[in-house]
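Memo to structure team: turn this sequence into C-alpha cells by end of day. - J.P.
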Amino acid sequence: MVPMIGVQLYGMWVYTFGGGGGTPTTGSDQGSTPLWLEHVVGLAEMVRDVAPMVIVVLFFQYVALRRKLSHPLRVAVGFVMVLVGLYAFVVGLTMGLFPLGTQMAEQLIDRGVPALILLFALLIGFATTMAEPALVAIADQAENVSPAGINATAIRLVVATGVAVGIALGVYRILSGGPLHYFIMVSYAVVIVLVVLAPKYIVALAFDLGGVTTSEVTVPLVTALGIGLASAIDGRSALLDGFGLIASASIFPIISVLLYAIALERIPRLRKEST
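Reply from structure team:
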C-alpha cells in the first residue's frame, strides 16, 4: 500500500508543478542499433538495477556482521545466473507476453461480443494465477503452519478464483467506462468488513496472498490486456482506463481468502449445532 501512496503523491507533484517527459524513441532509431549492442546495453542496465541489492547485502555481511561469505565463488556464479535469468525474463516478456496480451485484446474487441471478453478475462486470470510460483510457495507454507487445517491446493484454487473475478470485473469497468476509484473504495470496504468477521490467523495471509498473485506470470499478460482493451475502445484512455486490472487482481484474492477462512471456521461449527 505504501508504494500506492508514493506514486499518487508523485502524480500530485507532477500534475501540480509539471515534469519533463522523456523523448520517445522512434522506430528508425531502434532499427539502427545492432542487436548484440542492444543485449549488451540491456545486461548493463540489469547490473545497474541489481547492484544496490548486492551492495546492501555485502555491506551488512562484511561491515555490520564482520563475517566472510561461506562460498564466495558459488555466490558469484549464482549472481551471474540471476542477472542472465532476469534479463532473459524481461526479453521474454517483451517478445511474448506483452504482444500476446495486446493481440488478444484487439481480436476480442473486433469480435464485438462483451461476454466473450469477460469470459477470456475470467479464465486467463484463473490460469495465470495457478501458474504463479510465489503462490505455490506461500500456499505450502500456510498449510504447514495453519492451525485450522488449511489445504494448499484449496488456497490456490480460492486465490485463483478471486483473481479471476477481480480481473473480470476490472475488464467490465474498462468496457463500461466506470471510474476506478469507486470500484477500489467499495472493494476495500468489503475487505474491511471481512477482516472484522474472519479469524485473526488468516488476515495477514490473505493480504500477502493478494500481493503475490500479481507476480511475474499474471502482471505482464493482464497489463497488456488492459492497455490493449482501452486502446481499442473509442473514448477510452490507455493511461486512465488501461491500468487498474492489477489492483482488481490484488483486492479480490483477499476477499476470497477471507471468505474461505470464515466458511472453514463456521461450517464445522454449524454441523455441530445441527447435530
